[in-house]
Amino acid sequence: MHLKAPEHQVAGHIAKDGKPGPLVDDKGRFFKPLQGDSRGEIEVKFYESFSSNTEVPDHIRRYFPVYHGTQAVEGSDGAAMIVLENLLSKYSKPSVMDVKMGSRTWYPEASEEYIQKCLRKDARSTTVSSGFRISGFEVYDHKELSFWKPDRKLLNGIKVDGVRLALRKFVSSNTLSDTSSKPDSAFASSVYGGSRGVLTQLLELKTWFENQTFYHFNSCSILIIYENESIHDDGARAQVKLVDFAHVHDGNGVIDHNFLGGLCSFINFVRDILQSSDESTDN
Amino acid sequence: MLKVPEHQVAGHIAKDGKLGPLVDDRGRFYKPLQGDARGENEAKFYESFSSNKNVPDHIRGYFPVYHGVQLVEASDGSGKLPHMVLEDVVSSYVKPSVMDVKIGSRTWYPDVSEEYFNKCIKKDRATTTVSLGFRVSGLKIFDCQESGFWRPDKRVVLAYKADGARTALRKFVSSNSLADDSVPDCAYASEVYGGSNGILMQLLEVKAWFETQTLYHFNSCSVLMVYENESGGDEERRPQVKLVDFAHVLDGNGVIDHNFFGGLCSFIKFIQDILESSDNRCENGH
Questions:
Q1: Are A177 and A206 spatial neighbours (Cβ–Cβ below 8 Å)?
Q2: Which of A267, B47, B120, B131 is exposed most, by the fewest CB atoms within 10 A?
Q3: How many CA atoms are closer than 13 Å to the CA of A96, on its beta-carbon side?
Q4: Chain A residues touching B266 at Cβ < 8 A
């Protein structure tokens, strides 16, 4: 098994200072180290429950990474890893964005310390104001022929306008590192729009969230992925996936109103960009 | 002639010389503009809302009609104070059952004082606000068995957990005894919650507006549910949904009110569940 660090990780833990990070193989699998304390356990418990939950409709299942159980992996001190589908394996030049959904990342079952930490982070970011925050993104610059990633610290301090700008940059082809040029949103309709675009997928998810009471997806992210290679000929193949289930709890007969509210807000942001980019192409 | 409203379930009450709202016999509700910014903010909202052309007419119907501000003799005897003049939403009912549900998984909002934030979050965590996205603020239900109103103590209501909230919503549409532990029969669920003019349909209309409206953030606002118990006449329950309490409303600034929206969806699910289980019971001949 040939394992290496994933290329396009935009948020979450990376291999640093001797601590294990995620790995990928050449067979389309993603190996996520089981996080300490109860988080890794909770994530495994979620995947186990979800993969065998017959009440989750098939068209919703495809918004989640396929789960392949847990495995002890060589070189990670025999520590168990969660084996998942590598969401990027079918992409050759993927632009990726991680959006943490919900107007709060804490939840009633969490420790007081964790709740306070989350409250601070939520208030400083767009989580409280907008119902979501951009955790990270990486986008392919078609002019420079390279990937661009905004500074993490910069991203943490953005407000609503910064979010809009990031969502535009994410679907632009022009020079992204140049802050003076306006993003062209060239790929807005192929990525966000269309019958299989991001907006359609988000709306499908939203309908499920209006009724499902199985899980509360605390602190989960929506990952948006699209292909840059031959985007003009083959389209963007945009995909929405839910990721990061270390804090998922039982719904207990209540809908995940926190995730749903944030998701609806995010949908509006995407729709606004799509509409304004459609309008500018009309002109 | 102004008097203390009979059917107020939440908020300040003009009783025992305290400052509170009053009603007249012409269907108007007089809400005193309190000293702090809240009264001002609420009046500002009503002024903005009543002249906002971007609010569709069918949505306007879910808000009390605003009749401006008037100097009125205050209920605590402190003389003439400015009062907001609003439509009294229960005035057309003879024996209304009323429930006030505060919508949203948080009642605080960005840029409030630390003191206010701490007060809100403490209450939000102690009630069903955080867990369910809404909390029952007050209720007054007509009990046919007793031929009078059942009104649980405010402290009991605030202590509700998910089960308590569900039971209250069931009791709200039940004909059997409310004060004891008998299982609520939900006899009026389909008349009050269901039907083309029922509470559920109205909530769904409000929800559709909240999916895209970015005009206002309705922090700490309530949904008031009202229906008629007086038998005879046309026997219509006339269930009604109204949004009330706009002391903390702020500009939407291009962002939807995701806090209210999420809580509203959760509340809708609770109503739907009750409707479904009461429908099932009818089908089974219970």
A1: no
A2: B47
A3: 22
A4: 254-255, 257
Edge-first strand order for the sheet with B22-23 is: B22-23, B28-32, B80-87, B66-73
Assess whether A129 and A222 both reside in one domain.
yes
pLDDT band of B36, cuts 50, 70, 90: confident
Mean pLDDT, residues A194-207 taken together = 97
Say whether B258 and A131 touch across the interface (CB within 8 A).
yes
- Model confidence at A38: pLDDT above 90: no
Check B256 against A264: CB less than 8 A apart.
yes
Cα(B228)–Cα(A123) distance, rounded to whole angstroms?
Answer: 43
Give yes or no: residues A75 and A98 share one domain. Answer: no
Residue B251 in contact with residue A129, Cβ under 8 Å? no
CA of A248, closest CA in chain B: separation in Å?
14
> Would the CB atoms of B269 and A213 count as touching at under 8 Å?
yes
Cα-flanking dihedrals φ and ψ of residue B48, to 5°?
A: -65, -50
Mean local confidence (pLDDT), B10-17: 81
Tens of pLDDT, residues A64-77: 999 999 998 776 67
User: Are A98 and A224 contained in the same domain?
Assistant: yes
Query: Are the CB atoms for B205 and B242 separated by under 8 Å?
Result: no
Q: Report the residue from B125, B214, B263 with minimal CB separation from A257.
A: B263
Predicted model pTM: 0.95
Quick one: how far is CA B239 from the chain centroid? 13
User: Over the stretch B145-192, which tens digit does the pLDDT of each residue have?
Assistant: 888 999 999 999 999 999 999 999 999 999 987 888 889 999 999 999
Indicate the pLDDT class of residue A251, thresholds 50, 70 and 90: very high
- Sign, CA torsion B109/B112/B117/B119: negative
Q: b/e string for B105-116 if b means 16 or more Cβ within 10 A?
A: bbbbbeeeeeee
| CB-CB neighbours of B190 under 10 Å | 16
ipTM of this complex prediction, to 2 decimal places: 0.94
> Tokens at residue A29, please?
């699998």
Average pLDDT, chain B: 93
Q: For A130, which of B106, B125, B255 is closest by C-beta distance?
A: B255
- β-strand B66-73 against B80-87: which pairing, if any? antiparallel
Provide the 10 A C-beta neighbour count for residue B61.
13
Tokens of B9: 């379930």
Note whether B212 contacts A: Cβ–Cβ < 8 A: yes
Predicted local confidence at residue B282, as pLDDT = 59
Domain boundary among the residues A64, A83, A102 is at A83
* Cβ-contact A241, A64 below 8 angstroms: yes
Neighboring chain A residues of B161 at a CB cutoff of 8 Å: none
> Is A181 found in the same domain as A42?
no
pLDDT in the model for residue A16: 56
Q: For the domain bounded by B96-283, which CATH number is listed?
A: 3.30.470.160
Q: CB distance A253–B162 less than 8 Å?
A: yes
Q: Residue B286's pLDDT is what?
A: 43
